[in-house]
Design a protein that fits this description.
mainly beta; six-stranded mixed sheet; five-stranded antiparallel sheet; globular
């Protein structure tokens, strides 16, 4: 059966819900969003879009959004490769065809394009001028370069009028698509390799669709120190975030492509999927899939689509057992090839995964093991699933009497078998009886010995470690420049014993200074939105971070967000002309209060500037140099000088 997803933002064409996308109607619409996905061609998912956004965006641009005819092809049954494919290719492809990939396309038909197509410009060391050549091993970050042009949805318009995402459209996801931590994210697009894309809210346990939803972050951080370049053939100076290569990846829940394998509401049997996060790289910079179609390149002279021949004809076959050594996350049909070549002893399982436990316990990959059991003639063996993934720590999912804890100050006792009634003990001091499951809250950070006793007197011992309770669960923190100010906006999903926020500001992304204190909601399980406006524009790039402080004085930092205010500084630079002058002086962009001083610093008069181009007559002033101090509504000071000459 053909699967079709159709989105059309106007109501003129209700008959577009057909067995196949009608591209003529989609491309004829030049005033609102029109997009259609279809899988009519069995193994290929096609997207036809007029590339017109279906939401507002407060971007700053001299260009106007223009509809365009876009077509993307990707595999309907993508397969995972043994190595990642970078978004940026190491060698150039044919002239005229972009040698980087667009990462993917949103369900609204707008492209996810994190790259800028700009690189380090090679400089002649003799003349100090650019040679016209570039070093394509250093890729400039669009989010760093164009942030001043971004709006509330991370959009950018190029000189052709093409709208695309350089950043995550957070407001669109949370407001229009209603994606929150209350539930798993819906699909927000498809990558060029065909795997689905989600926003950051996914299941805590990748294999359990009934587990809680959490907000994921990437494993990328800014490298410390200075770049190795000479400043002529490669960049030097501190790692600032200007280049993709300024960041390094460390192991986390998401791999280096911001993806992982797991079950989702759309793929209950599991799939590899990508996650858009609120920290770098925001939009992934590499691919896990095997097939990348040329329709995700850009510019002219690109090769034609080969998806119809490159993509698999049906669901991928392979080993579907996650406990095996040759597990294929993309496989839907098990072909019997699973390899369980492992070794084990009473303490540690090695090879495909590892798990260390207390002496005397027995482990079996993919099976069960028993905790230490004491008391009476206990015949009951308390079986607990052991889930082991390659390069990760084993997790224990209780199906019989067990206890579990995390970083939320809670310990939960649960059981699906065993002989009731049960008794539970924490550190031999707190003892409770049925019912089961039972959760105990408000516990401090630390280790606890838990005991579960069933009706036969059998006891199961386990040590549970609780992490620190985070005072604030931050959804997003963004800086947006517009008009004469920078808007800082952050959203929290929950707050527990939160005291306040402190905004910190930096001119280099390394050395931060206190800017402002903002009160928090203290305790809240509802989403809260905060705003702060910074009117002091002093540097081309300004960096911000948020310190979240709880009532005990503990704190955490948000990610660092940067904004380019060069255009704002130029646009709202106060100018005086003509200068020198003998009669009239025009003040541009000085609206507000101003004070006129002579060259000795003596106050002459106060000026109330009422418009952006305001004219004053200075013909009665003696010749000489004068100064005007400008004070706007936010208290920001600027001083400009002019010279009065004779007629």
């Amino acid at each position: 059966m053909n699967n079709i997803i159709l989105i059309i933002s106007i109501t003129l064409f209700p008959f577009l819900l057909s067995a196949q996308c009608d591209t003529a109607i989609i491309y004829a619409n030049t005033i609102s969003n029109a997009v259609c996905f279809d899988t009519t061609f069995s193994k290929v998912r096609n997207c036809y879009s007029n590339n017109f956004p279906d939401h507002d965006d407060s971007y700053t641009s001299s260009f106007t959004v223009t509809a365009s005819d876009e077509e993307y092809s990707m595999c309907l049954y993508p397969d995972t490769a043994s190595t990642f494919t970078p978004l940026y290719e190491e060698e150039e492809t044919p002239a005229g065809c972009n040698y980087t990939y667009q990462f993917g396309v949103g369900t609204n038909g707008i492209g996810y394009t994190p790259n800028s197509n700009e690189y380090f410009d090679i400089v002649d060391p003799g003349t100090g001028t650019e040679t016209g050549e570039v070093n394509i091993e250093w890729h400039r970050e669009a989010r760093y370069m164009f942030n001043v042009n971004f709006g509330n949805n991370g959009g950018h318009i190029n000189s052709f009028g093409s709208y695309h995402y350089h950043d995550v459209p957070v407001d669109y996801f949370t407001d229009s698509l209603e994606i929150t931590i209350a539930g798993h994210s819906s699909i927000v697009g498809y990558a060029a390799d065909g795997f689905p894309i989600y926003y950051k809210f996914v299941f805590t346990d990748a294999n359990d669709t009934s587990s809680a939803v959490m907000a994921l972050s990437s494993g990328y951080t800014l490298i410390s120190g200075t770049r190795p370049g000479d400043g002529y053939t490669a960049p030097d100076g501190s790692y600032s975030g200007l280049y993709y290569e300024d960041y390094e990846y460390t192991t986390t829940t998401l791999d280096s492509c911001n993806g992982r394998w797991g079950k989702t509401p759309d793929f209950p049997d599991g799939t590899y999927y990508y996650v858009l996060t609120d920290n770098y790289p925001y939009i992934p910079r590499c691919f896990k899939g095997t097939v990348l179609d040329n329709t995700f390149r850009s510019l002219s002279n690109c090769p034609a689509s080969t998806a119809s021949t490159d993509c698999s004809d049906g669901p991928i076959e392979g080993c579907t057992d996650p406990f095996s050594c040759n597990y294929n996350a993309a496989a839907v049909i098990d072909d019997g090839s699973c390899d369980f070549n492992y070794s084990y002893d009473t303490l540690t399982i090695t090879s495909c995964g590892s798990y260390e436990g207390p002496s005397g316990t027995f482990y079996s990959i993919g099976g069960t093991f028993s905790d230490t059991v004491v008391g009476g003639s206990c015949d009951t063996v308390y079986n607990i699933d052991l889930t082991v993934y390659e390069n990760s720590t084993a997790t224990r999912n209780g199906i019989d009497p067990t206890s579990s804890g995390g970083s939320d100050g809670k310990i939960t006792f649960s059981s699906l078998s065993g002989t009731p009634p049960f008794q539970f003990s924490i550190d031999s001091s707190l003892t409770y009886s049925n019912p089961i499951p039972r959760t105990f809250s408000g516990l401090s950070e630390g280790s606890y010995w838990t005991v579960i006793k069933d009706g036969n007197g059998c006891e199961v011992f386990e040590e549970i470690t609780l992490g620190a309770i985070l005072p604030v669960e931050l959804v997003s923190f963004k800086a947006i420049s517009h008009e004469r100010k920078i808007e800082l906006k952050w959203v929290t999903a929950s707050e527990i014993n939160s005291s306040h926020f402190e905004i910190e500001k930096s001119s280099d992304g390394v050395n931060f200074e206190f800017l402002e204190k903002v009160s928090s909601s203290h305790n809240s399980q509802n989403q809260q939105t905060y705003h702060f406006y910074d009117f002091d524009l002093f540097n081309e790039y300004q960096y911000y971070r948020l310190q979240m402080i709880d009532l005990d004085g503990k704190f955490e930092y948000s990610n660092i967000t940067a904004v380019n205010v060069k255009a704002l500084l130029q646009e709202f630079e106060i100018t005086l002309f003509p200068n020198p002058t003998s009669d009239d002086l025009t003040i541009r962009n000085g609206k507000g209060n101003a004070i006129l001083y002579n060259h000795l610093g003596k106050k002459i008069k106060t000026i109330d500037i009422l418009s952006s181009d305001f004219q004053i007559n200075i013909s009665e002033l003696p010749t000489g140099k004068y100064f005007i101090q400008f004070i706007n509504d936010q208290g920001t000071n600027r001083i400009k000088s002019f010279v009065k000459i004779k007629k």
